[in-house]
Design goal:
The protein has about 300 residues and is an alpha+beta fold. It contains seven helices and 14 strands. The strands form four sheets. It has a six-stranded antiparallel beta sheet with strand order 8-9-10-12-11-13. Strands 1-2-3-6 form a four-stranded antiparallel beta sheet, with helices on one face. α5 runs antiparallel to α6.
């Protein structure tokens, strides 16, 4: 899930698309923002009829479902590409019920959304504690990042049906819900987000010994809830925080240990257990540490 500055749509333009519409008949493709052949995702910019506001459509091929693979193959027709002795290559055409594409829509999309999903060069940044205080923190405080969607979830104004677990304690409580990229069809690509209820922690840079009860509570109860609901073991889960995060409200990622999730690399993810251990060793560890992270070339924090 990403959080960016919201822009009010043009009041004189009538929108033909509304949340809940079930097709793209009024959609025109304007630009291919990015493509990842490894994750089989495509990010498309376009416009809905009657509106000048941009829309972003995120398309992702879904994983195979081992429980239905037999039925899928029975209904799949083949177009031969080549045959050489015992080796044949074909293009398979499975039934529509087994050929879905996970589709997410951001509308109206802001300039920050367009930047986030566009192909960009990556750079490695070394951020000292002084850099954070003099550059990053003023940027965060000056930019009107909208995280109203996070507050809507915490207040149960939206996405109530997606909540998997909640600890309602205002200080150490949190809500678990699936990441937008996970369709819950299988656990191999499990990706769940823990959103903390308290609103005074933006990122890992704010964490100190006063937050250890919160972090340990999320680790313990989050793990228990996910393992119970999805039949997993504790050693099948990986928990981490991002820095820089995509939105400045403390949240923790739970992923299946075999899932190569976006942002799980060493210059982005900080393992929850490591974070807890570091703070127990030095209470102001993340207020004084130099942190390396990657940014894309159009991210204005640098």
């Amino acid at each position: 899930m990403a959080a960016n500055t919201e822009v009010t749509a043009s009041p004189n333009k009538k929108r033909k698309y509304e949340a809940g519409d079930d097709d793209f008949k009024s959609f025109t493709v304007c630009n291919i923002l990015n493509e990842n052949v490894q994750s089989k995702t495509l990010f498309v910019e376009g416009r809905f009829e009657g509106s000048d506001d941009p829309a972003i459509v995120l398309l992702e091929k879904t994983p195979f479902d081992k429980d239905t693979i037999g039925k899928m193959l029975v209904g799949t027709s083949l177009t031969k590409v080549m045959q050489n002795d015992i080796y044949g290559v074909h293009t398979g055409h499975p039934p529509a019920d087994y050929n879905g594409i996970k589709t997410s829509i951001i509308y109206p999309a802001t300039e920050r959304h367009l930047m986030k999903f566009s192909e960009q060069q990556l750079y490695l940044i070394t951020e000292t504690a002084k850099d954070y205080k003099e550059i990053t923190l003023p940027f965060i405080e000056s930019e009107p990042f909208s995280i109203e969607w996070v507050y809507n979830i915490l207040a149960k104004k939206s996405e109530v049906d997606r909540i998997l677990f909640e600890d309602s304690d205002e200080k150490n409580g949190f809500i678990l819900l699936p990441d937008m990229k996970w369709d819950l069809s299988q656990t191999g690509n499990l990706h769940i987000i823990a959103l903390c209820h308290r609103k005074d922690v933006r990122s890992i840079r704010d964490l100190n010994d006063k937050h250890l009860p919160l972090l340990k509570n999320i680790r313990k109860k989050g793990t228990e809830a996910i393992c119970e609901k999805f039949g997993l073991k504790e050693d099948q889960l990986q928990m981490y925080l991002h820095y820089q995060p995509s939105y400045y409200h403390l949240h923790i990622h739970f992923c299946h240990v075999t899932y190569d999730a976006p942002g799980r690399h060493v210059t982005k993810a900080h393992l929850l257990q490591d974070v807890i251990d570091n703070i127990e060793i030095k209470t102001d560890y993340y207020q004084t540490k130099t942190i390396l992270f990657t940014v894309r070339d159009r991210k204005s924090v640098v």
